[in-house]
């Protein structure tokens, strides 16, 4: 299986994914580079609180095109992606460290422990404390 880019077709210098209809927004190579750069900015420090307008301005693409392109390219919206990355990091910290839930929440980009617990519980179906109790015992 490849990167998924092999199904994209080039039309007049624009990259078009087969799932995008003729009425959808086409993406140039520059747009694709900006979208990939946006992902790298998010991945560089998931604890940072960045607005879509900041990411768009930093990468050199409009907010609408960034949001649409990110979702089309990665199959998830910008904030959905950020949340998923934060939850993956938090899960690792919950299981593999003795850090407090408050410390993990800050490292994972949450300003308030309660918001972190709510988000973690929603994502994994149990609180971080219960998750730790259940899965650290198995390691």
Give short descriptive properties of this protein:
mainly alpha; about 60% helix; elongated; 3-stranded antiparallel sheet; about 140 residues
Description:
With about 140 residues, this protein is mainly alpha-helical. The protein is about 60% helix and about 5% strand. It has 7 helices and 3 strands; from the N terminus they run βββααααααα. Strands 1-2-3 form a 3-stranded antiparallel sheet. A hairpin with a 2-residue loop joins strand 1 and strand 2.
Write the layout of secondary structure elements.
Layout: E1 9-11, E2 14-16, E3 27-28, H1 29-44, H2 52-59, H3 63-74, H4 78-96, H5 101-107, H6 113-124, H7 128-136
Antiparallel strand pairs: 1-2, 2-3
List low-confidence stretches: 9-16
Cα-to-Cα separation, first versus last residue: 32 Å
Overall average pLDDT: 86
For the biggest sheet, the summary is: 3 strands, antiparallel
- Widest sheet: strand ordering: 1-2-3
Number of helices: 7
Radius of gyration: 18 Å
Strand content: 5-15%
The sequence of SSEs as H and E is EEEHHHHHHH
Number of strands: 3
Tell me the structural class: mainly alpha
What helical percentage do the residues reach? Answer: 55-70%
The gross shape turns out to be elongated
Short recap of the structure:
This protein is mostly helical and 139 residues long.
């Amino acid at each position: 299986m490849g990167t998924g880019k092999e199904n994209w077709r080039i039309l007049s210098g624009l990259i078009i994914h087969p799932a995008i209809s003729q009425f959808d927004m086409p993406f140039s190579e520059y747009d694709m580079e900006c979208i990939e750069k946006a992902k790298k900015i998010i991945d560089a420090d998931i604890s940072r609180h960045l607005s879509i307008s900041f990411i768009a301005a930093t990468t050199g693409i409009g907010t609408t095109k960034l949001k649409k392109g990110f979702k089309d390219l990665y199959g998830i919206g910008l904030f959905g992606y950020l949340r998923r990355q934060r939850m993956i990091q938090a899960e690792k910290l919950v299981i593999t460290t003795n850090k407090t839930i408050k410390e993990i929440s800050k490292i994972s980009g949450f300003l308030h422990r309660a918001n972190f617990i709510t988000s973690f519980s929603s994502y994994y179906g149990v609180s971080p404390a219960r998750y730790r109790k259940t899965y650290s015992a198995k390691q």
